[in-house]
Amino acid sequence: RLFSGCNRLLTSQIISHYDSINQCKKEQPEYFNFASDVLDEWSKLEKVDGKRPATPAFWWVNDEGEEVKWSFEELGFLSRKAANILSQACGLQRGDRVIAVLPRVPEWWLLNIACMRTGIVFIPGTSQLTAKDILYRLQASKAKCIITSETLAPAVESVASDCQSLRSKLIVAEGSRDGWLNLKELF
């Protein structure tokens, strides 16, 4: 209840802004980017303007009760770091495709927002995919990067040689794996 109550002012400001665009009182932006036009604006209201307290923008809880909470500022900062990893370490550019075959762990959301920031096409996949499913998706999409967990890395390795466009493999795991970039280590 406290979280939803804190959002009223900010939500009304955002709705008011977009209502004014719809009513032709403000110019519609030529390009819209959720990460910079919404997330960063909320972060600015939270940090610089002091119009709202640092409430969770992201709140994740796993089955064991572990929590991850990020404010808008933290989510923006971490998504920019993830965007740099995709652009620099993975060598991806605007329009390139990346397949993320991950359970819905916090990194999934960071990578999703990072792709929005950079214009990289984010293609989500369920963690129930088989090697054959992964091969089909990699070939059909011509993805240059795949992001997965330690559990699915062997399935990716078994089909990677048949995917000519695949340039980098990013793993979300505690330990290293030969031939893979480790997201947690790069952070």
Query: Could you give the order of the helices and strands?
Result: HHEEHEHEHEHEEH
The major pleated sheet works out as: 5 strands, parallel
- Widest β-sheet, arrangement of strands: 4-3-5-6-7
- Which band does the percent of strand residues land in? 15-25%
CATH architecture identity: 3-Layer(aba) Sandwich
Q: Please estimate the helix content.
A: 40-55%
Tally of discrete structural domains: 1
In total, the number of strands is 7
Arithmetic mean of pLDDT = 86
Catalytic activity: a medium-chain fatty acid + ATP + CoA = a medium-chain fatty acyl-CoA + AMP + diphosphate
Domain AMP-dependent synthetase/ligase: 49-175
GO molecular function: ATP binding; fatty-acyl-CoA synthase activity; medium-chain fatty acid-CoA ligase activity
Keywords: ATP-binding, Fatty acid metabolism, Ligase, Lipid metabolism, Nucleotide-binding
